[in-house]
Amino acid sequence: MSAATIINGTNGTNGQVNGTNGKNGVSQSSQNMCSYEECDKIAQHLLSKTRHRPKIGIICGSGLGGLAESVENKESFSYKEIPQFPVSTVPGHAGRLVFGKLGGKEVVAMQGRFHPYEGYPLSLCTLPVRVMKLMGVETLIVTNAAGGLNESYEVGDVMVIKDHINMPGFSGNNPLIGENEDKFGPRFPAMSSGYDRNLRKMALEIGKELKFDNFMHEGVYVMLGGPCFETIAECKLLRICGADVTGMSTVHEVIMARHCGMRAFGMSLVTNKCVMDYDEDRKANHEEVLETSKRRGEDMQKLVTKMIERIEV
Ligand SMILES: O=P(O)(O)O[C@H]1O[C@H](CO)[C@@H](O)[C@H]1O
Ligand SMILES: Nc1nc2[nH]cnc2c(=O)[nH]1
């Protein structure tokens, strides 16, 4: 079965939807949500195809898929071959699930993630997180490319995510909307400890050891729906709200991971400085994002690999 077959009549290709409501006014999100049993079927299917038994899951951000490349003894599956999975449509997201060893541990890495602006509901964007959980993953590590709002952040800086602002949530969009799957987690999950304190501390310590501390920070990530980059007024608002960087991903993945009891860690690469001044002619663009990711990608890989070496599984 493909992603398209689980969606009730309103979808385009590969599970993309056009935003209309389905039968009985039930929201699209709940219709697209795979049940526990369906997620388990996908998990068992993948486990039957690989000898690896990962306890650590990774989601690679825009242009940051090199981390998945560095996995040893790789067994890779294109998203197209995985039942019910959407496909990657964004440059810099290869669209592969990679199993293997990194830092001496068994991992599974998404080389490419799903964003809501691609036309996928948040529940479908986060399907792989639940599948990872049912394959035995206990810790989720996510990376992303983000725009710097904090004036002291430079292009190429790395920010350990301390907390997030779920902007789509403010308008009632959340991957958990719909009937709650009690087997995964509670109806009302707490989100005050989204990003694991020990893993954050570990990342900053390793950053120091690698002499990365001159470009590392800890701060707040805000997710917007995209695909537009922010206006100047929006950037000013987000900064006042306490955000240090902004992007179009991560938050829905971490919500899903925390809901089902996984530990979560996230790291943003500041790929561009947000335009905050009406006299500036600079414009945010995806080419600059990918260019910065290329430049700083290896340092992020080193950091994540060292973390995985130290994580007890
Ligand atoms: O968050 P990741 O997937 O790293 O990608 C970021 O980069 C893209 C914009 O250049 C957006 O998709 C934004 O979310
Ligand atoms: N929303 C948003 N996402 C990004 N991803 C990389 N840079 C940016 C940015 O400036 N804004």
From TrEMBL:
One GO molecular-function entry: purine-nucleoside phosphorylase activity
Species the sequence originates in: Owenia fusiformis
Primary role: The purine nucleoside phosphorylases catalyze the phosphorolytic breakdown of the N-glycosidic bond in the beta-(deoxy)ribonucleoside molecules, with the formation of the corresponding free purine bases and pentose-1-phosphate.
InterPro entries in the cross-refs: Nucleoside_phosphorylase_d, Nucleoside_phosphorylase_sf, Pur_Nuc_Pase_Ino/Guo-sp, Purine_phosphorylase, Purine_phosphorylase-2_CS
EC number annotated for this UniProt entry: 2.4.2.1
Catalyzed reaction equations: guanosine + phosphate = alpha-D-ribose 1-phosphate + guanine; 2'-deoxyguanosine + phosphate = 2-deoxy-alpha-D-ribose 1-phosphate + guanine; 2'-deoxyinosine + phosphate = 2-deoxy-alpha-D-ribose 1-phosphate + hypoxanthine; inosine + phosphate = alpha-D-ribose 1-phosphate + hypoxanthine
Positions with biased composition (Low complexity): 8-25
Gene3D superfamilies, per database record: Nucleoside phosphorylase domain
This protein's pathway: Purine metabolism; purine nucleoside salvage
Subunit structure: Homotrimer.
Name the record gives this protein: Purine nucleoside phosphorylase
Top-level taxon in the UniProt lineage: Eukaryota
Catalytic EC class: transferase
Family: Belongs to the PNP/MTAP phosphorylase family.
Gene Ontology annotations of biological process type: purine ribonucleoside salvage
Region (Disordered): 1-27
UniProtKB keywords: Glycosyltransferase, Purine salvage, Transferase
SUPFAM superfamilies for the chain: Purine and uridine phosphorylases (SSF53167)
PANTHER family (UniProt xref): METHYLTHIOADENOSINE/PURINE NUCLEOSIDE PHOSPHORYLASE (PTHR11904), PURINE NUCLEOSIDE PHOSPHORYLASE-RELATED (PTHR11904:SF9)
UniProt GO cellular component terms: cytoplasm
